[in-house]
Amino acid sequence: MTDAITARGLVKRYKDVTALDGVDLTVPEGSVLGLLGPNGAGKTTIVRILATLLPADAGTAHVAGVDVFAKPREVRRRIGLSGQYAAVDEYLTGYENLEMIGRLYHLGVRRSRERARELLASFRLEDAADRPSRTYSGGMRRRLDLAGALVADPPVIFLDEPTTGLDPRGRADMWEVIQGLVAGGTTLLLTTQYLEEADLLADEIVVIDHGRIIAQGTADQLKLQVGGERLDLTVRDPARLEDARAALEPLGVGRATLDAGRRSLLMPVDGGARTLTEALRTLDAAGIVVDDVGLRRPTLDDVFLALTGRPAEDEPEPDRPPDDGAGPVRADHGRHAVEGGV
Ligand SMILES: Nc1ncnc2c1ncn2[C@@H]1O[C@H](COP(=O)(O)OP(=O)(O)O)[C@@H](O)[C@H]1O
Ligand SMILES: [Mg+2]
């Protein structure tokens, strides 16, 4: 298998800020790399360098077999870029936007129109095709922007935080669209602040912090480091806790931990909502009454906590109160950190 993207020793400085401090990346053809990190980590800088929009201070990079720094024009012909740039013209309809891009890429009138219709259909924008895109929801605009990046059918796509700022529905729609893309064999480099998103979409995840790679692996490997997703439930009758354990353990991926005082059971699982539903059905069939139940996923904060011993930092916020009352570990993650040692 050949590599669609390789970068070695990328360094980028802005005056006294070192945005990238020696980044190495490899993305095999047809795979998805999730670049995961908080605000200011250097994600956009990496994307902009690989997409030929920004020079690096040191390092080498190849995209689709072409040297990024030596032959930027050739690289540009082989990539699509979408995300925080929003290349959508608000006054044109969705259809006109895509058709125009086709013409810019010299696809010809007929093929440009055909391609615009194709993409509008596969991105579920058919009904809105002939409305000015300023009337679109945030999620629809992002999908149109992504469709624009795909007009010329590039083998390599960069998606910079494709779902940041979208509501859960918009996010879910975008994920579906991206999954379709991935199924088609496109090589994707995706940046995100959401572990959940990287988990869902990426084959391999690179965690970046202050311009350096701090962890790398599959979502499962990273989750092993942070303790994974957990089913957390409380039963009405503490005398039934052992029964609950016996009934539920076959659905999980590890031993359940019982807390008789809290009448609760905690168990690592990997089936998401499906496991939750199965668990409730199983307990119902066993006549065990459940008072409270939930699934908790590790977040980027959990990953950072596990890897660096501190939560993910955003860009400095000047007006932030000196102490939010929970110390360095946020209140809603405190319990998780404790459970990590269970
Ligand atoms: N044009 C710029 N001038 C100065 N500093 C910049 C510039 N662009 C980015 N930075 C800094 O470089 C670092 C990485 O930024 P960026 O790549 O945008 O991070 P991310 O996309 O992960 O949020 C940050 O500290 C940011 O403030
Ligand atoms: Mg960014």
Give a structural overview.
The protein is an alpha/beta fold and 342 residues long. It folds into two domains: 3-223 and 317-340, P-loop containing nucleotide triphosphate hydrolases (Rossmann fold), CATH 3.40.50; 229-297, Alpha-Beta Plaits (2-Layer Sandwich). The protein is built from twelve helices and 14 strands. The strands form three sheets. The chain has a six-stranded mixed β-sheet with strand order 6-7-8-3-9-10, sandwiched between helices. Strand 4 and strand 5 (66-67) form a beta hairpin. Helix 3 (94-104) packs across helix 4, helix 5 (138-150) runs parallel beside helix 6 and helix 8 (219-226) crosses helix 11 (300-308). The longest helix has 16 residues, at 168-183. The protein binds adenosine-5'-diphosphate (ADP) and magnesium ion. Adenosine-5'-diphosphate (ADP) is lined by residues 14, 17, 19, 37, 39-45.
Tell me the overall shape: globular
**Number of helical runs?**
12
Ranges where pLDDT stays below 50 over 5 or more residues in a row are: 315-342
- Strand-and-helix sequence, N→C? EEEHEEHEHHHEHEHEEHEHEEHEHH
The helicity comes to 25-40%
Give the rounded overall mean pLDDT.
85
**Neighbour order of strands in the largest sheet:** 6-7-8-3-9-10
Total number of domains = 2
Strand tally is 14
Report the top-level CATH class of the largest domain.
Alpha Beta
Helix/strand/pairing category: alpha/beta
What is the CATH topology assignment of the largest domain? Answer: Rossmann fold
The CATH superfamily of the largest domain is P-loop containing nucleotide triphosphate hydrolases
Radius of gyration using CA atoms only: 23 Å
The CATH architecture designation of the largest domain is 3-Layer(aba) Sandwich
The largest β sheet comes out as:
6 strands, mixed
First-last Cα distance:
40 Å
β-sheet strand percentage: 15-25%
Bound molecules: adenosine-5'-diphosphate, magnesium ion
